[in-house]
Amino acid sequence: MAPAGKGTVYVAAGYNLDWFTRSNIHFIDYTTDHYDFTLYKVKAEDRPGLENLLEQDITVPQYSFRLGYWLNNKADLAIEINYDHVKYVMIQDQVVHMTGYFRGVYYDQDTTLIEDFIRYEHTNGANYAMLNIVKRFNIWHAPNEQHWLSAVGKAGAGFVLPRTDSFIAGHRRNDTYHVAGYVAGVDVGIRYDFLRYFFLETSMKGCIANYADVLLYGDGKASQHWLSAEYIFTLGLQAPLKL
After folding, report:
1. Which helix (H) or strand (E) holds 117?
2. pLDDT, tens only, 70-106
3. C-alpha distances out from residue 220 to 27, 37, 105, 115, 204, Å
4. Do 150 and 137 touch, CB atoms closer than 8 A?
5. What is the CATH number of the domain that holds 163?
6. How many domains, in total, are found in the chain?
7. What is the DSSP letter of 177?
8. Residue 55: its pLDDT value, please?
9. Phi, psi of 49 (to 5 degrees)
10. Which residues pair with 207 in a beta bridge?
């Protein structure tokens, strides 16, 4: 007997750590400002915010949320809504190559990303919202069936919902959540079910995320894409829809 059967709903929440590949970022605005330039191979980092976890709102750190439904009695196939509050922070004072126009001047040179020129981060979330198919493989269970250990694989796609905090030469914007592109990824991990209704899950997730329409000050827009790796730890609760 599986730890949960068809018709069982589960919900889980936890936190994540993230790593990003370098990204080319294109910035453009011809109306409220005058620029059209690209920064190449920009480095960025996450901002987990876990150091003061018990002293702040639990949604301030990089959190993860899962809502799923088991599709069969073996409880080895599920559909899952998967949301990760991922934070992306461009590293200040790095040197990158810049090409394009900025306020009437053409640049094709290495440039230091000082704060007076540009700050760029998705710290209210780069935010991956995905719909996943989940497959579970039983590894071990106790004779009394109160403890189960399983391998879990997930694959899915969805949209990105960033709220971008940007500053470009005196102009800042940080106010709007916005569907800016798409994300797709796979997730592999270990799940431990215990006492029928509870479970722990830890996993690694790889994604490709494309931000084609990032909002900046005025009519400004940015676009970029990256690959990311994510470590996720969640605690969950599950129960059949009909007890």
Report:
1. none
2. 999 888 999 999 999 999 999 999 999 999 999 999 9
3. 7, 12, 18, 18, 35
4. yes
5. 2.40.160.20
6. 1
7. -
8. 56
9. 70, 25
10. 185, 228
1 belongs to a structural domain: no
Report, in angstroms and rounded to the nearest whole number, the Rg of the chain calculated over CA atoms: 21
Take residue 134 and report the two structure tokens written for it.
């989940």
Q: For position 61, what pLDDT does the model report?
A: 86
The sheet with strand 165-168 has its strands ordered as: 44-45, 88-90, 118-122, 165-168, 171-173
Average pLDDT over residues 150-171: 96
CA distances from residue 33 to 97, 190, 200 in whole angstroms, order as listed: 21, 50, 50
In a domain? residue 3? no
Task: Count Cβ atoms below 10 Å from residue 114 Cβ, excluding itself.
Answer: 11
Range of the domain at 154: 8-240
User: Is 136 domain-assigned?
Assistant: yes
**pLDDT category, 5, cuts 50, 70, 90?**
confident
Residues ≥6 apart with Cβ < 8 Å to 195: 146
Residue 113 one-letter amino acid: L
